[in-house]
Amino acid sequence: MDPITERAVPVRSDDVVHFPSGDQTFLHHLSSGEYFALNAVGSEVWDLCDGQLDIAGIAERLTHAFVVERDEVLPDVLELVASMYTEDCVEIR
Amino acid sequence: MRTESLDFDLPADLLAARPIEHRGLDRHDAQMVVFHRGSGRIEFRQFRNLPEYLSAGDVVVLNDSRTLNASVFAEVDGCGRVELLLRYNPKGNVWGVQCHPYKEPPIGAAVRFGESPMTATVLGRDKALPLWLVEFSGTPAELVEFLDGHGRPIPSPYVAESFSNAEYNTLYAERPGSAEMPAAGRHFTDDVLERLRGRGVEIVKITLHTGLSSVEIHEAELADHEMYPEWYQLPAATAEAVNGARDHGRTVLIVGTTVMRTVETVARERMPLVESTGWTKLYIHPGFEFKLADALITNFHGPRSSRIALAAAFTGRELLLRGYREAIERRLQFYEFGDTTLTLPD
Description:
The complex is a heterodimer of chains A (about 90) and B (about 350).
Chain A: E1 10-12, E2 16-21, E3 24-29, E4 35-38, H1 40-48, H2 55-66, H3 70-86, E5 90-92
Antiparallel strand pairs in A: 1-5, 2-3, 3-4
Chain B: E1 31-36, E2 41-46, E3 59-63, E4 65-67, E5 71-76, E6 80-91, E7 94-98, E8 110-112, E9 119-125, E10 132-136, H1 140-150, E11 175-178, H2 190-198, E12 202-208, E13 230-234, H3 236-247, E14 252-255, H4 257-269, E15 276-280, E16 295-299, H5 306-315, H6 317-329, E17 340-344
Parallel strand pairs in B: 1-17, 3-12, 3-14, 4-11, 14-16
Antiparallel strand pairs in B: 1-2, 5-6, 5-8, 6-7, 7-10, 8-9, 9-10, 12-13, 13-15, 16-17
Helix pairs in contact in B: 5-6
């Protein structure tokens, strides 16, 4: 079953070091050695992956932070979290 | 002096991503650029050659602070799962921690570390530093033991992976308390220490626990920058050895910016040196008048950093940057796992 649903609660992996640079956030996975770059919206999603909000809740927060519609942003959040999950940058609770 | 005068292009692939031992070499095999301050001459040697530059009666001053596993993950009430970076220890079991949760934790928020009996409480923001103050439930010794088991050294963004605590420490590190490795001493091996002692060189120690001092300078003028406070201790035996060397015209070799800041802090208060304990915010940049140091070992530092400002103050900006340019051409490695420099007075 696909773990990345609106009700999935993502948590940042302990294996990832993150550091901001301008509007972006760079992720460095310490086990795989891979680097990833997140734009401003992605950085906000990353910050919200603290195990308190599900993906629907994260999308809801973004509607306030970036003045976008929930239906517009939810698919993007699902896609981003799925991508980070595939790269072991987040775990799902 | 403008901060941009300490700017230079540093290729990203010259940031040392792993300890030299991972390349099948010993710590003392690091490359060493030797600056002869008097003549302006530059040599390219290895750290293992260090004893050749010292003789009987000279004194080497090391920092014996041990790097903590200062990064630890926690569940903080109201903030979820966050990484805490322990940066400075103002008293007892209270630490200033660096942390970037999505929202501020309330004062009194509980901090839990999985199933561990160690817990902590958020006391609020530090008044002077960009840190939260957190009080741990255990004694300082229990906290060190807890971090040894549950934490990891604070990883720099450019390192390849998470390395062990031993790899983030000098061989002679004894007193736990640093957030980041005092890296200049990392090149010392038992072999180098024995050869120094064999030549009659005295080796003494101070302690300075590193915290937040390695920040980039954002001010346009170097002089406008300020350092954060760091705790130090200079023992009576070290003061005596350094004073004796100076009385006899011998060289005092300072190993690292932390040692330089400690001895120059004490020297500015009183010469000859005396036993001393305290906090230092001493910021050494070009124009600083050194009261004590004759020679300096320090790694290669990033542009516009407080550490390169210290190195430029001691070695001379033009000589230092000339050596940096040649080091970059020869592809020497920068930062804590990288190669090193030695500045001599001749």
